[in-house]
């Protein structure tokens, strides 16, 4: 079956010859592969290709199934990454997965450390095949959900404090596993962090895209610290570690990259993002700020410093180039940070907006909320998808508020009660004052909303009503 011909092919002026697809980084993209094609991996297992679900910097990702006798459904549990043989990035990633991501290795690690989950993708198969006289390389993986970058953009480019630290703890788990295999990831960022797709993995983040992963040691011997022009500034420039800026590879570099990510997720922008085209300038600024972390934190968070972030970065900076990090110490720093803000490490990911969102006209009045210092820094507004995941403190506050309204309402309705008598007296006073209120409105005086028109008053509003205060 011939590949699809896009509109670009018709505009090129060559009849019947589709225009070659090229990624932004210059790599040739594979020609579209028709759903239904069956390929065989190196272990002789067959896979059926479904429709495309995404295009990357060097290849394309398709849904896949091991049930080759029927079409691949939209709910397929697997995906296949495909790239032309001449490219290369998938070749490096594939061999990295083969060494460190075999399912049995991951499960053994989880059992030894008593982990309920680990966001390390599993290698399920790989190989090569020919399609329309073109040779392609492929790798089979689990299917994942949305990436954090898309979620981040839906929340004003900032995550809540709990979300950031909870994700950080999960990534530290993955880094400890990867580093135990003598590899570093080198490109941690929101677009490479995916939420689980299968039921039960909704609160799990997976670190994907090992295209820049490389060995920092060989058989226990750490590589030396030296400049390598070929790999200098590798990675995503705003997060690249100081070691990676000179082409050196280290475990502390991965922890530093994670620190930059957490900082950006909390404050939305890093100090060196104004000049990302100049790699040396970015490198110089990172060195300067990491030599004075307090000034870095103060610049990023002029109002309130996130508890634990300074301590985490100070620890990363204190590590020697070839030193093994204390991963549990790093996790505990973040856990203590959560505790300082009234949260706990419950493993739940609640993607809340960190930027205050104005309530709609139909929403309940929120002027009565006496928000604590912690809550004033991050909005409690949550998307419909995550509304069931709201933290316990917020839920308790809403329950208490509801009970208060019920108790006050019952007291007011009770005939002969002091409150009921007081309300009747207020009603008479209000009736006599209506004419004056209408006159004020008629001449353009400031209009106040009478409390009788409030559908769902809060306990604080009811208290004001008893004092005959117009609100």
UniProtKB/TrEMBL annotation:
Q: What Pfam families does the entry give? A: Pkinase (PF00069)
CDD domains listed in its UniProt record: STKc_VRK
Q: Select a single GO molecular function from the record's annotations and give it.
A: ATP binding
Region feature (Disordered): 1-20, 360-392, 413-434
Q: What is its EC number?
A: 2.7.11.1
Whether Transit peptide counts among this entry's keywords is no
Look at the named UniProt entry and state the broad enzyme category this protein falls under.
transferase
Q: Which residues form the Protein kinase domain?
A: 47-338
Question: SUPFAM superfamilies attached here?
Answer: Protein kinase-like (PK-like)
Report biased composition (Acidic residues) as residue ranges: 379-391
Q: Which InterPro entries match?
A: CK1_Ser-Thr_kinase (IPR050235), Kinase-like_dom_sf (IPR011009), Prot_kinase_dom (IPR000719), Protein_kinase_ATP_BS (IPR017441), Ser/Thr_kinase_AS (IPR008271)
Q: Where is the composition biased (Basic and acidic residues)?
A: 365-378, 413-425
The domain of life is Eukaryota
Arranged from A to Z, the UniProt key words for this protein are: ATP-binding, Kinase, Nucleotide-binding, Serine/threonine-protein kinase, Transferase
Q: Can you tell me which residues bind ATP? A: 81
Q: What family is it from?
A: Belongs to the protein kinase superfamily.
What is the designated name of this protein? non-specific serine/threonine protein kinase
